[in-house]
Amino acid sequence: MDEKVSNLNPDIQGLEDFTINDLIRLHGELRTQGNVATAQSVGEAFQILKTVYLESNDRSKNLYTDFGSIVISNTLEHILSKRLGYQMTFDSIMHKYLLDPLHLENTEFNPVSNITGNGGGDFVHDPKARALGGAIGAAGLFTTSEDLTILSHNIFSVNYVNSSFFRKKDIERLGEITFPDTPQSNKGNMGIYVKHPLGLKKSFTPNELATGSFSHQGWTGSVAVFDPKQSIHQSFLVNAIYPKDSGLELRNDKAVGFGTAFEEYQRKITEMTIILYIAREYYKRYGHNLEIDKTIILK
């Protein structure tokens, strides 16, 4: 994680002394010479990606960009292709090391059927991901609530057993508040949403959940929330994207007012989640010992 990207990936030489950890923590300000999203072919898009450079190498604050995740997935392709002796795409890496072992059978890049979350088409909505072939580290992965439940069980298992797929310290990094005093203090490592004093006004991770909880929102509106300490998972697989990206009533490709409506919906779901959590913990204690204190304290 502390190795310079330029030492790991011969195609990416413009990031000075930045490491994988710098990209994970959203250090600096990354730019490319040209627009990846408007490339006329996958090959042209990757040629533009190779020009990625640092507009700023400031490590004192974080600034969200999807280029870090894209560079990381491209670097993984280089590392594993060299190690295994044959070409590995990010799609094949994800299947080999995560999706297939966890039996996430309905999670995939570039779905062949019409699927929610992309404005009604059978392609990834994100322009950069689409230009780069649809399978990168920043966007393009489609899933179902059933597969997210399987994923959450495996994430939560690190509290009880030695997981084959996740390490507790890695899960803790996902919920880490990396830069508490910056404008983007609601986003932690890799741009994952973490807890914020203003709660759902600033983050998709409710303050009612435990410290170390985290969430991820896709541009199309879908949200997945994970609380590893209390084994709570929420998924909101909504599709707020319109087929066309312009219009007087649209903002960020979604209907004006969607954000407010979603916040209220998530707030109601969170209230019910906490009630269910308290009921679960109470009856768990009641069934084991009638004499113990059954007070539930949320931390």
What's this entry about, in short?
The chain has 299 residues and is of the alpha+beta class.
Structure, described:
- By secondary structure, the protein is of the alpha+beta class.
- The protein has a domain at 180-299.
- 33% of the residues lie in helices and 10% in strands.
- It has nine helices and nine strands.
- It has helices spanning 5-8, 20-24, 42-49, 67-84, 90-99, 127-131, 145-156, 168-174, 258-288; strands spanning 29-31, 53-56, 108-109, 141-142, 214-217, 223-227, 232-236, 250-251, 254-255.
- A three-stranded antiparallel beta sheet has the order 5-6-7, sandwiched between helices.
- The longest helix is centred in the C-terminal third of the chain and has 31 residues, at 258-288.
- The radius of gyration is 20 Å and the shape is globular.
- The model has no long low-confidence stretch (mean pLDDT 89).
Write the layout of secondary structure elements.
Blueprint: H1 5-8, H2 20-24, E1 29-31, H3 42-49, E2 53-56, H4 67-84, H5 90-99, E3 108-109, H6 127-131, E4 141-142, H7 145-156, H8 168-174, E5 214-217, E6 223-227, E7 232-236, E8 250-251, E9 254-255, H9 258-288
Antiparallel strand pairs: 1-2, 3-4, 5-6, 6-7, 8-9
**So what's the oligomer here?**
single chain
Which geometry do the CA atoms define? globular
Residue-averaged pLDDT:
89
Element-by-element helix/strand order: HHEHEHHEHEHHEEEEEH
- DSSP strand tally: 9
**What order do the strands of the largest sheet run in, or round the barrel if closed?**
5-6-7
How many angstroms does the end-to-end distance come to?
31 Å
How many H/I helical runs? 9
Q: What proportion strand?
A: 5-15%
Helix share bin: 25-40%
Unreliable sequence segments: none
Q: Structural class per helix/strand content?
A: alpha+beta
Radius of gyration: 20 Å
Largest β sheet strand count, sense and barrel closure: 3 strands, antiparallel
